[in-house]
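can u do me a favor
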């Protein structure tokens, strides 16, 4: 399993992985068929990662991207020290240490980029993901009530953060 920063040649493979994730889990933002499939949108996101302040890491199993972690750095002066995290791993690759490897690379990036606060949200019932985040230093800061609608029901999210001592 290779963990690496995304490159432009990964665009189609990355989009394919995201579309598969949308069908495999209800814990991500997009429902099946809802995600934009315009490859130029994906390429624009990758371009901003390569040439900007953001990070997209991908996990590759031989030829296929099977997971990712993205970190969007705060854009404005008052939040430049923060990064918002999104993580997804294909179903058959979960529980194999990929998430921990992605978070290890994230720590390196955060320190190199003077990030002192990483934050994310996770659906309260997603105990496996919550455990991964806690194992990697994230703590629950609060609950966002009725954050999403899944299967016609409101669900709550934990808002979690990891603080680096500066």
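np, heres the sequence
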């Amino acid at each position: 399993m290779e963990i690496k920063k995304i490159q432009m040649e990964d665009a189609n493979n990355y989009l394919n992985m995201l579309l598969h994730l949308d069908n495999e889990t209800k814990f991500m933002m997009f429902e099946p068929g809802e995600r934009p499939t315009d490859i130029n949108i994906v390429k624009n996101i990758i371009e901003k990662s390569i040439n900007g302040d953001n990070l997209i890491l991908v996990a590759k199993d031989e030829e296929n991207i099977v997971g990712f972690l993205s970190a969007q750095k705060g854009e404005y002066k008052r939040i430049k020290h923060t990064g918002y995290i999104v993580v997804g791993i294909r179903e058959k690759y979960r529980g194999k240490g990929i998430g921990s490897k992605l978070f290890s690379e994230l720590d390196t990036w955060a320190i190199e980029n003077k990030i002192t606060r990483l934050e994310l949200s996770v659906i309260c019932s997603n105990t496996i993901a919550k455990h991964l985040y806690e194992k990697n230093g994230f703590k629950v800061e609060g609950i966002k009530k009725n954050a999403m609608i899944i299967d016609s029901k409101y669900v709550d999210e934990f808002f979690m953060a990891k603080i680096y001592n500066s």
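Helices lie at 11-24, 39-51, 98-112, 127-135. hope that helps!!
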